[in-house]
Amino acid sequence: MAGLSVKMVFSAGFLLLMALSIDIWEWNEGGPDIAGMPYWVIWSMAIVIATGIYYILFSKYIWRDE
Amino acid sequence: MDTIAVFFIVLYIILLIALGIYADRIKRKGSDDYFLASRGFRTAILFFTMTATNFSAFFFLGFPDSAYRLGFGQYGIMALGTAFMPIMFYILGRKAWRLGKEKGYVTPAELIGGEAGSKPLQILTMLMMVIFTIPYLTVQAVGGGYIIASLTGISAFGGALVITLSIAFYVSVGGMRASGWTDMVQGILMFSAMVLAGIFIASALGGFQAAGDSAYSEAPQLFVRGGGYFTVSIWFSFMVLWIFADPMFPQLFSRFYTAKDEKALKSTMVLYPFVISFLFLIPVLIGVWARGAGIEAGTNQVMIAMIERYTPKWLYYLVMLGALSALMSTADSQLFSISTMFVRDLNIGKKMDEVKAGMLITWIMALFTIITAYLFLKSGSDIMSFLLKNSFSGLAVLAPAFIYILYSKERSAPLAILSILAGESFVVLSALHPINTPFLPGVIAIGISGTILLAGEIIMRKMKR
Asked: What is the pLDDT of residues B200-246, one digit of tens each?
């Protein structure tokens, strides 16, 4: 079993990802910036990929097989 | 009638039926094998069956349509929420898998009812899942009917009939194994079709940048979220809604039980965001690009119009088969999960063989779907539209009760029932009398259910002291 502090770090990490996905600083911005897409779409993609990386670490340190 | 289209559709349906028959040939004795493929899906099948079941006709037809009207924000609300959702594979899926293996649970309602020791809670959960899944199943059949109608010239009802009977055949004979295998084939088909569609359309429009530039010159509002539909609270609401609603679809929840081991569940959780980050972007891009290309299309027609204009004919057939795959992979899992719930939660198979009961109820539910599809096509059923509009919220309010029963020490069944009834009441009331709130009503309903459980837990703990 992972320790309480490790679990807390991972819980905080998940909440941080959720918070970062609401990119209010770019809410009123947007144009065909990168490959015809706004910067914030690339940001959203980066958060989705970061979530995948988070799951890799989560399955290694928190979710242990029985 | 397009004879090439008919040829591809017939070939595709024969392939699915052949997989169903083969799954029947190798099946072992016992209801565990029929309903859960002996709990033996490894990562590849589990991943494809989960994603193919999760991605419905909306992925192919609805997504580009929404992006055409609302813009790139459609990517954010779908991709982010769906990427965060797999955390539920750990919170609910891991527990469901372990307890299912240990105690023989097959349906989601068996898990919550069994762990709480409450048949009323089991029946209530089952009823809510059935009520909010049937309209979705009907819409998949109707969507399939429209696709077949556009390709072959037969009526939309005739198309819905072909789709529903084909699904009923391969799922009733092959059970969960047939559903999983066909999902894998359908998943590969729809993902390939979507990727190829993106490549061909981008190339025809002069590349990503050129396509984006012309869309921006025509409709710059599609590139900005502020001032439109995508407020910060709506953005947040969708993220919360997907996390709680998606795993509550019985066709997805029941797949937690089918994993061979926890490694398969974990790998599926990890793969989900990587695939979504890429795949969800393509239909959104096609929808936005359509504005720059001057496409004027009706509801759910944007993808078809873009494919017809910018891709070779063979890709048009492939995309239409991809769209059929998306809705059939969802519909077969829905049909099978509903019949499984009738057999297991209502003990219909008690007096007869459970597998035979499952096959019989699959056909009865298929006939029921054909009737509801007919009514939907004829008059646009108000009840069906109402349930469909509220199905995500209606299912999402079940999630707090599941988490409570699986993690609380008190495990009070009456409290779980109260939380579900309160949440569902709010969903119905807010639909009948819309309230002015910055958040989606479903999120408030989840909050009500969760608060009742939390308050009840605190009170019960204090009373014990």
From this structure: 999 999 999 999 999 999 999 999 998 888 999 999 999 999 999 99
Q: Is A22 on the interface with B (CB under 8 A)?
A: yes
Over the stretch B42-94, which tens digit does the pLDDT of each residue have?
999 999 999 999 888 788 888 899 999 999 999 999 999 999 999 999 999 99
Would you list the domain boundaries of chain A? 2-61
Per mean pLDDT, which range of A4-8, B423-427, B449-453 is the poorest? A4-8
What's the N-to-C CA distance of chain A in angstroms?
Answer: 10
Question: Which ranges of B302-398 would DSSP assign to H, the alpha helix?
Answer: 302-310, 313-345, 354-379, 382-396
Q: Does A28 touch chain B (CB under 8 A)?
A: yes
Phi/psi region, residue A36 (left: phi>0; alpha: psi -120 to 50; beta: rest), is left
Q: With an 8 Å Cβ cutoff, are B75 and A38 in contact?
A: no
CA distances from B436 to A54, A61, B242, B421, B439 (A): 36, 43, 22, 22, 9
**Interatomic CA distance for residues B348 and B352, integer angstroms:** 8
Q: Are B5 and B151 in contact (CB under 8 A)?
A: yes
Rounded Cα–Cα distance for residues B237 and B285 (Å): 23
Structure token pair of residue B71: 């813009």
- DSSP label at residue B368: H
CB atoms near residue B122 (< 10 Å): 25
At the top level of CATH, the class of B3-380 is mainly alpha
pTM, 2 dp: 0.94
Query: CB-based contact (8 Å) between A42 and chain B?
Result: no
